[in-house]
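QA checklist item 7 of 12: single-chain prediction sanity check.
[x] sequence parsed
[x] length recorded as 256
[x] structure emitted
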Amino acid sequence: MEQISPWLEGIFRWMHVLAGVLWIGLLFFFNWVNTQFAPKLSAEAKKEALPILLPRTLYFFRWGAAFTWVTGILLLGLIYHMGGASVMMADGAELGNNHFIGLAVLIASVLVYDLLWKNMTGMAAVGVSFLLATGSAYLFAEVLGYNTRTTTIHVGALFGTLMAFNVWFRIWPAQRKIIASIAAGEAPDGALAALAGMRSKHNTYMSVPLIYTMLVQHNVVMYEYSWMGVAAVIAIGWALTSYLYKKSAGDAPGQY
């Protein structure tokens, strides 16, 4: 197994990055390009173009999400939860029974997140979401005793799990009904459009700090800041995403 693991890790990393580029690239297209483009089409143009464009785009979008999440979980298990990483706890020990709790947090996060955004909206929900994300980083680092590398990648896995859930259980089911309505020349259900748009926006916000959690694994400087550094990255990532949303709504991106 020790001889096979490096090969598996390399293959899983390759697939993970490739699928992630596909998924996140289409996510950015939807949120910073298509959201400004589609509303400007006439009703006739929407009926003709969108039922052709969106199914093809959503096909790669949802399967990119699936392969990114599956290979990410496989990497998490291979490197951390099967003893692949030499140091996983802050005191130099292995994860031990704490790896079950870490995985349970990923599953519980989906239930908490979905319930939260079904019952709260606006900046209050954003504030609670930030506190929960920061609290998860604190839990990993201070309660479970994960070192900074392990804490950071588990926060990234948490975001990735929420994003994949949104794609397959919120965005894609809503979009199927929306596309069917457009193809029939009917107005899409406003509630479905709002749900798909909101969860897609959430994914965009989560994707920016998520990308950092993947890259920081190779940056030892960040290891000094533990969960507080993760919280700072989330705040900076969300601020950057907000700026890009404002930029995409302006006239400059339409110039050439």
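[x] summary fact logged: Residues 43-81 form the longest helix (39 residues).
[ ] second reviewer sign-off
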